[in-house]
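tokens incoming
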């Protein structure tokens, strides 16, 4: 068992390097910034379509209005993602710029959106009521144009970096107001980025007869086809779980590359569903509800198994503490509390459960008549409810949910029992050493260090700087921002800090956020706390917090989870780290 852990730890720096890749970060954070578009547009779509499922007929003007809101939000998703990706890529690039050289993220954002339109959208003229109109083909403005959005964003930022690094800008006298001077400085890089995208568009259209966005889809279609097979779905899910198992946030690495096709497939499923057909795509955005049923590792049933079948006091306590968060896909209390991460007992079920789930889902879609996922629901929707909704309320979906719950339980139970025996033996040994009865083992387990295997759960550790950044002393008036991947885990600690402040009478404000969406607000806080799942970004974040004089803290896995359960302890921990 120790050999497995050592082998995984040996390769962990390589996987962490992948997770910190600035291109992947920009794609992930750019897409995350546009999630309100996905979720809000889906609400209007549900209003327009779901009443018909139960025989309710809405007024046609209301349906048309909801569809318009959907088309004018989700329909321009690609344009918006081009801007947010460029903005986040600019932030990463600015950390690597020479002193005194800064890229204007507002300008790169707009330039990337213009470049995306050139790469993805076709303009033509048509006759309407006797007049000639110029028309945009909107097909690739939405999710179909995401690849063009990413390419436009990266081209734009690199052009800006080239120009700004070499002072290829228009300089005005120092008497000119800064805002106006900045606009002139951006003219050359803005024009260069747009011209390059325009040239690419002309070349591709003349050589291939299709816009750039369609070229990428054609070239990558074999890959997309392969990804929607059983081996493809299993590989995607196995990679996601494996990366998380070694302590690197798996979805951040795997999903950015497949999000365009997942969203496009889900949009096609929706069109087929509305036309009365059978949505057949299985590689969709909300397939994560299945592969990550209760969170990465398909851990939905695990807390209940810990409560009902385990004898170890530690595992029973973890089960009780994690059962509610895991129901809403926040499974960090389980991952770091059991622990699951870097626990060789858990490697096989952690990877296998999600793979089995997606395989069963594809079988149900292809052979049993279950709809492929068509509607988008928030990631924190309890998985059984989300699956039922996004399959258009099919009863067969409930049968499917029951089957994968049973299968996941059967996969996990033998490995949990083996690990439970190890913990029970360790608890008994500690009780015997202290001359206590076995009934006292619970108190010992709660007040002694975790077993050796648990110590390996502290992953993605980053070196602390020799000289800490200037920071606020004391906790009075403290403003704390907690960051994780999706603002779920961070909310647990932020809420604990709020509760602890109320208990101790401290004047502390705490907020939760998602890493990647913090850049515009981080200067409003005195302390930023990184949850374990984003700890691999410590060095990048440290460069920003040092510049702003913000204290950066990054508690390890179990330590973080313990703080979420101890409000007063969270305040004490803050006070100790500020002294």
């Amino acid at each position: 068992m120790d050999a497995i852990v050592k082998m995984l730890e040996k390769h962990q720096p390589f996987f962490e390097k992948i997770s910190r890749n600035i291109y992947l970060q920009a794609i992930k954070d750019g897409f995350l910034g546009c999630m309100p578009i996905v979720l809000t547009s889906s609400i209007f779509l549900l209003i327009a379509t779901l009443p018909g499922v139960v025989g309710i007929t809405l007024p046609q003007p209301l349906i048309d209005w909801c569809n318009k809101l959907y088309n004018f939000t989700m329909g321009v998703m690609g344009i918006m993602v081009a801007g947010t990706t460029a903005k986040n890529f600019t932030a990463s690039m600015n950390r690597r710029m020479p002193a005194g050289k800064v890229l204007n993220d507002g300008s790169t954002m707009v330039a990337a959106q213009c470049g995306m339109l050139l790469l993805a959208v076709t303009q033509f003229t048509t006759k309407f009521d006797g007049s000639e109109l110029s028309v945009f083909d909107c097909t690739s403005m939405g999710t179909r144009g995401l690849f063009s959005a990413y390419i436009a964003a990266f081209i734009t930022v690199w052009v800006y970096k080239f120009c700004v690094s070499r002072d290829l800008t228009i300089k005005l006298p120092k008497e000119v107001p800064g805002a106006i001077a900045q606009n002139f400085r951006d003219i050359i890089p803005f024009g260069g980025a747009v011209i390059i995208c325009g040239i690419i568009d002309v070349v591709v259209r003349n050589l291939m007869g299709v816009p750039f966005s369609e070229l990428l889809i054609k070239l990558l279609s074999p890959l997309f086809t392969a990804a929607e097979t059983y081996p493809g779905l299993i590989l995607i899910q196995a990679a996601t779980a494996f990366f998380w198992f070694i302590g690197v946030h798996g979805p951040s690495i795997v999903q950015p590359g497949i999000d365009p096709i997942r969203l496009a497939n889900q949009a096609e499923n929706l069109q087929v569903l509305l036309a009365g057909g059978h949505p057949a795509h299985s590689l969709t955005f909300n397939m994560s509800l299945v592969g990550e049923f209760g969170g990465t590792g398909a851990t939905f049933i695990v807390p209940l198994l810990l409560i009902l079948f385990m004898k170890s006091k530690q595992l029973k306590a973890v089960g009780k503490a994690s059962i509610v968060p895991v129901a809403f896909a926040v499974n960090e209390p389980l991952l770091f509390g059991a622990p699951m991460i870097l626990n060789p007992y858990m490697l096989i079920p952690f990877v296998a459960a999600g793979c089995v789930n997606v395989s069963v889902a594809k079988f149900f879609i292809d052979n049993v008549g279950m709809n492929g996922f068509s509607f988008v629901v928030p990631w924190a929707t309890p998985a059984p409810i989300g699956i039922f909704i996004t399959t258009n309320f099919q009863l067969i979906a409930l049968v499917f949910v029951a089957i994968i719950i049973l299968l996941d339980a059967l996969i996990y139970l033998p490995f949990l029992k083996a690990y439970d025996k190890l913990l029970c033996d360790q608890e008994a040994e500690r009780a015997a050493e202290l001359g206590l009865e076995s009934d006292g083992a619970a108190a010992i387990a709660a007040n002694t260090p975790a077993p050796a295997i648990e110590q390996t759960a502290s992953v993605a550790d980053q070196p602390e700087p020799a000289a800490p950044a200037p920071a606020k002393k004391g906790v009075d008036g403290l403003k704390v921002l907690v960051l994780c991947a999706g603002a779920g885990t961070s909310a647990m600690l932020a809420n604990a800090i709020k509760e602890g402040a109320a208990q101790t009478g401290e004047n502390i404000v705490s907020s939760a956020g998602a890493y990647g969406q913090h850049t515009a607000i981080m200067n409003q806080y005195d302390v930023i706390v990184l949850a374990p799942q984003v700890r691999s970004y410590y060095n990048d974040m440290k460069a920003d917090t040092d510049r702003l004089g913000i204290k950066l803290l990054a508690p390890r896995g179990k330590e973080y989870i313990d703080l979420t359960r101890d409000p007063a302890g969270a305040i004490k921990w803050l006070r100790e780290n500020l002294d």
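note: The beta strands are 122-128, 131-137, 478-484, 508-514, 527-530, 551-553.
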